Amino acid sequence: MSTTPPPQAPSTDTHPPATEQASSDGALGWLRTLGPRGRRAFAGAFGGYALDSYDYFTLPLSMVALAAYFGLDSGQTGLFTTVTLVASAVGGALAGVLADRIGRVKALMITVITYAVFTVACGFATTYETLLLFRALQGLGFGGEWAVGAILVAEYASAKHRGRTLGAIQSSWAVGWGLAAIMYTLVFSFFGDDVAWRVMFWTGALPALLVVWMRRRVQDAPTAVAARERNAGKGSFAAIFRGRLLRTTIFAGLLSTGVQGGYYTLATWVPTYLKSERGLSVVNTGGYLTFLISGAFLGYLTGGHLTDRLGRRRNIWLFALLSAVCILAYANIPSGADTLLLILGFPLGFCMSAIFSGFGSYLSELYPTAVRGTGQGFTYNTGRAVGAVFPTTVGFLADSWGVGGALVFGAIGYGIAALALLGLPETRGRELE
């Protein structure tokens, strides 16, 4: 049997037909121009990142119950997040190299299996140290999911629509977060706290089966396959620290550190803040998180459109400023003003998520195809590791400042992100070779 691909395959995936080009400016034009293979890649990456988010949020949502069960202070609970994010930096960087060496889809399969298995293992932990270890191992898989999935889809997307396409992928984080919040409300309503946190971790395995099924039909973009064959799969860390890529890697790492330091401060501590300092019940906490998560979902989609219209740098600058302002406002709402707390959750979620929408396209455009996985995996996940200092610092400050007071530390992260952009170019409209 001939191994020559059918003549229509290249045009399906790299150059949309005239009918699709004519309608590419519609609301879903970005999706149509991906082609059949690109849409399958989109579905796989969307589902995988949603599961990634679901598994991540099982910990912050269960934090109060875990602290009571193991007798932990705020610093020890904050260490859970730090260990997860530091391990994710290692896993994400390795996944990026794997993506350049063995392919995007194969690397994604490894990440999803890793984080699903160890999320379930967390539910069987009998000591604080064991849970910390399992959470670190879960972080190895967690770290690679977004970076590799974003590259996979970016290489199918057109330059014109890449921002909104990757913004849509990013929105799946809010979908997974929302599912986790719903499951949290149900599980903690039907089980006692000493069992409920275990059940939350065990549910993290369920969606993995769906993602594995989807990815059986997903393929790498032809450009990525060709680059891997030309370079014999020689992705390496050394390559992103040579020549002009050295400056890019340093400043992209700082950008990732700032944005993720601010984001994970909020993602980790807002549920605890609502329950322990604002005195909300499980059901009411879920209601407040609904506003936050709804804002996040729309923020991802809106930010994706704005990053194509305003440019990558302007979009990040805009929402770095707005996110910092929202954190300061949210943390200083007076006691008893719970309605204002509810309403402000929407713009907080919107801004802290919209800033991420340009990341997938921006980091993909900063690196050539041969080291795109390595560059994006390293800078994004190094940012996670260093940014992990922020939620841990909040944990240690919470005993003296209160969680609400310590949350303002996250605003510093957004300031770092804004400064890092001074060392990076604008890449809007850049074609991926």
Automatic annotation (TrEMBL):
SUPFAM superfamilies in the record: MFS general substrate transporter (SSF103473)
GO MF annotations, alphabetized: carboxylic acid transmembrane transporter activity
Gene Ontology CC, one term: plasma membrane
Composition bias, Polar residues: 10-23
Subcellular location: Cell membrane
Pfam families for the chain: MFS_1
Name of the protein this chain belongs to: MFS transporter
Residue stretches spanning the membrane: 78-98, 105-126, 132-154, 166-189, 195-213, 245-266, 286-303, 315-333, 339-360, 381-398, 404-424
Keyword DNA-binding included in the entry's annotation: no
Region (Disordered): 1-23
Keywords: Membrane, Transmembrane, Transmembrane helix
Family annotation (InterPro entries): MFS (IPR011701), MFS_dom (IPR020846), MFS_trans_sf (IPR036259), Sugar_transporter_CS (IPR005829)
Membrane disposition: Multi-pass membrane protein
Family annotation (PROSITE patterns): MFS, SUGAR_TRANSPORT_2
First-listed, main subcellular location of the protein, grouped into a coarse class: membrane
The Major facilitator superfamily (MFS) profile domain, residue ranges: 41-428
Gene3D superfamilies the UniProt entry points to: MFS general substrate transporter like domains (1.20.1250.20)
